[in-house]
Design a protein that fits this description.
mainly alpha, two-stranded antiparallel ribbon, about 50% helix, flavoprotein, membrane, transport
Length: about 525
């Protein structure tokens, strides 16, 4: 029977070679001599791939150096999946980061509400205030104050008024700085439309119990939200058509080259803006594919990865090459937020800044985890260089920066138009997280001049911004980790196809052998 085993091995090898290049199977396999590619050079072949080769076509072109920076996909994969993801996952499970106060009832400012989604999985379960740590609840009153004495007879409600979201003890010398900072904070330039945490409709949400996943929310309502974001806020003229836009008129065989020719002609800042929004959109789509409702039985619903849905959104053939660009924009967005986190670390490294919940031991552990996380990301050798942005003439740069800020702030307002409550929750949080990252990147001087022992009137973060920043980056980190999982699933699927075909060939050989013996 040795001849059969030899033939089987030969068949498997032959089929593997026929169904695609082995390079596409490796997660970290990449020649270090890869040169940067332009958007045009990334366009895949228009030849229709075989059904089996499509199993890896989502990833075959996802390799090499990213545009507008000097970092490659493979380096980010290794750094995130082995070092960053485990730490950010632990961090966002801490009490300080899991409770997010949000107003999901704000009316859409741009068009009449379609009505909230009636699908049960769109529902967000708010957290009763009785379950919220007292130190977090106190954040609505003031940000810095003298901590309460645990041995005193003050009631819990009175304690809540005296505790801060970031708790510290202020010296008399710092009181004037605190007053000045409060005035500055009200007028500070924000990249997002922040919810009023004191509004009656604002509620605490436990992010761990309201996980981001596929809810069934789709169609014209969802398309209108994204269409408004891309068409009206990404500096794009109406004469330029975005590829695969379901609300745009049919363009026949247009493969999007016209759009990308226009995009490459933009200044760096406007090009970056589009790539950030596209990366955020891609990240959200990956979460929906990875946490898809696979089975809704009488008992417990089953959620898990949907490979077909992933292919539909990112496969090279099904998206006319858009899938690769979308995924690369995710990596670009990851670099932007990673850079912001590395820059803001001095803000948290000051001894008087505590992530305050009211539990001294828990707060100490959370602060230690956060500082370890910052130490880790500082070791990344290929951070994005934000100094290349808004570096022209001062007046022109200032105008462009303000235009950039207002466009993004408008996008944060569009999040109130999302019909699905759970999608709105995570859309608002991730948009605010990115807005906070942008605020950090463009506050370099203020961060460098932070006072060591007192609040700064030049730069400050609210608890809402801190929670959004860390959870927003956590979502990006999760997306890249989930890409690894999808790659393995597609690889397993492909291997199964190869083995099935090899087995089929063996059965034919055995049949032909029996015929010869007759």
């Amino acid at each position: 029977m040795m001849w059969k085993a030899t033939i089987l091995a030969f068949c498997v090898l032959l089929l593997a070679l026929l169904f695609g290049n082995f390079v596409c199977l490796g997660w970290f396999q990449q020649d270090s001599s890869v040169k940067p590619k332009t958007q045009q050079s990334e366009q895949p072949s228009k030849a229709s791939p075989s059904p089996d080769s499509q199993d890896q076509s989502c990833f075959c072109h996802l390799t090499g150096v990213l545009d507008d920076c000097f970092c490659d996909v493979e380096s980010i994969d290794v750094f995130n999946n082995l070092k960053v993801y485990p730490r950010i996952k632990r961090l966002t499970e801490k009490d300080y980061f899991r409770y997010y106060r949000v107003n999901l009832k704000r009316p859409c400012p741009f068009w009449p509400n379609d009505g909230h989604c009636a699908i049960k999985d769109c529902h967000v379960e708010p957290c009763p205030e009785s379950q919220i740590p007292v130190g977090i609840k106190s954040g609505n009153y003031n940000k810095y104050s003298k901590p309460a004495d645990p041995a005193s007879d003050v009631t819990e409600c009175e304690q809540a008024k005296n505790l801060g979201a970031i708790n510290s003890t202020l010296s008399n010398q710092s009181k004037e700085a605190f007053v000045n900072w409060e005035k500055h904070d009200d007028a500070q330039d924000h990249f997002c439309e922040l919810d009023d945490e004191t509004a009656p409709d604002s509620e605490y949400v436990d992010l761990l119990l309201n996980a981001e996943r596929y809810t069934g929310y789709k169609g014209p309502s969802a398309w209108r939200v994204w269409n408004s974001i891309y068409e009206e806020n990404c500096f794009k003229p109406r004469s330029v058509y975005r590829p695969l836009n379901p609300l745009a008129p049919s363009r026949g065989d247009d493969d999007g080259e016209g759009f990308y020719t226009w995009l490459e002609g933009l200044c760096l800042e406007k090009r970056v803006f589009y790539r950030l929004i596209s990366g955020l959109h891609s990240s959200i789509n990956i979460h929906l594919c990875a946490e898809y409702l696979l089975n809704e039985g009488w008992g417990r619903s089953i959620w898990g990865p949907n490979v077909q849905e992933f292919r539909q959104r990112f496969d090279t053939a099904e998206t006319k090459g858009e899938g690769t660009r979308r995924l690369k924009n995710l990596y670009f967005l990851y670099l932007i937020e990673l850079r912001a986190l590395s820059k803001v670390s001095p803000y948290f490294e000051r001894a008087f800044v505590n992530l305050y919940t009211g539990d001294r031991q828990e707060d100490g552990n959370t602060k230690e985890l956060l500082l370890q996380f910052f130490d880790e990301i500082k070791t990344f050798p290929m951070h994005f260089d934000e100094k290349s942005m808004f570096a022209g003439q001062k007046i022109e740069a200032k105008i462009l920066k303000e235009e950039f800020r207002l466009h993004f702030k408008n996008i944060s307002r569009i999040m109130d138009c999302v019909g699905c409550s759970k999608c709105r929750l995570w859309g608002k949080l991730q948009t605010q997280g990115l807005g906070t990252a942008l605020k950090i990147l463009f506050s370099e001087k203020e961060i460098q001049n932070l006072p060591e022992h007192s609040p700064s009137k030049g730069f400050q973060l609210t608890r809402q911004e801190i929670v959004a920043l860390l959870n927003g980056f956590g979502r990006l980190s999760t997306s890249i980790q989930q890409l690894h999982s999808f790659r393995l699933l597609l690889k397993d699927n492909r291997c199964s196809v190869v083995l099935d075909k090899a087995e089929e060939m063996m059965q034919r050989l055995e049949g032909s052998d029996e015929t010869d013996q007759m």
